Every structure is written in structure tokens, then in C-alpha cells.
Automatic annotation (TrEMBL):
Biological source species: Oceanobacillus profundus
Domain DUF3887 stretches: 65-154
Acidic residues composition-biased segments: 37-47
Keywords attached to this entry: Signal
Comp. bias (Polar residues): 23-36
Residues annotated as signal peptide: 1-25
Spans annotated as Disordered: 22-58
PROSITE patterns the UniProt entry points to: PROKAR_LIPOPROTEIN
Protein name in the entry: DUF3887 domain-containing protein
Gene3D superfamilies for the chain: 3.10.450.590
Amino acid sequence: MKKLFFILLALLVLMGCGEPTGDQASENATDSSTSDEQNEDTDDAADSSEKNGSDEDTEEIVTLAEEFIGQLANGEFETATQHFNGTMEAELTPVALDELWVALEDQLGGFIDQEYSSIEQVDDHQVVLIDGLFESADVVFSVTFDNNNQIAGFYIQ
């Protein structure tokens, strides 16, 4: 019972770290869709160069997210926090990560594997979704990254 309480408390703390709401994402999507036709040609050129850099960034944060989950599974909690931004460092210590992971495995059985699912853009954050496979159930890990490719949020669904 104490471990379940801790998991719920930890998840509530983590929910406040990072990921903006869907309403905010919708507002930004509508704001960015109102551009002048005259700027479309220059925007297209800028978009294609941003996409190339964006692809590299996407690969980098997917790799960082997979490494983060792997470090948790291997008990490397100090190493796992190295890519945290300031807010996450203050909210989630290596000891708290250890307790969270142990409680997760107590409830779901041993960790088996992970599989990259998708990536979503939410305002100025990118959210990497990874399917976590455990002995008795599966979860979705959401690892949120800021513009500096630092972990700004971590959620377990």
C-alpha cells in the first residue's frame, strides 16, 4: 500500500514537470497556421532546412529517451538524471527514480524490453512515446524534451 501511494505521489509530481496541455497545443497550431502567402516561398526554403536539422534532432532525442529508459532498467539512476533540465533535477532525484522503478517492477513484474512508438510536438517541447514491456503488463513511457534536448518531463501511462 505504501509503495502504491508513493507511485501515485511521484506521478502527480511528474505531471507538473513539463508537458503543456492539449488546449495550449491547439492554440499554437492555429496561431502558426495563419501566415501570409507572400512569405510562403521563403518559409518553404526555411522549412526544408529546418526539417533536415529536425530529423537529426528527432533521432537524437529518440536515442536519448531510449537510453534513459535503459538506464532506469539497469539501475543506473544517477546516470539517468544527467539529461534532466533544472526543473526535473529539482523534482526527481536519483533516489526517487530508484524507488519509482522498484515500485513499478513490483506491480508489473520485471522489465522485458522497450520499443519506440512515436514522437509528438507539443508547443516548444517534443514528447517521445516508448512502449515499455513488463512481465504482467505494458505501459507507455512519455519522455518530454525541451529545446535544449534536455528531459523536461517523464510520465508513465
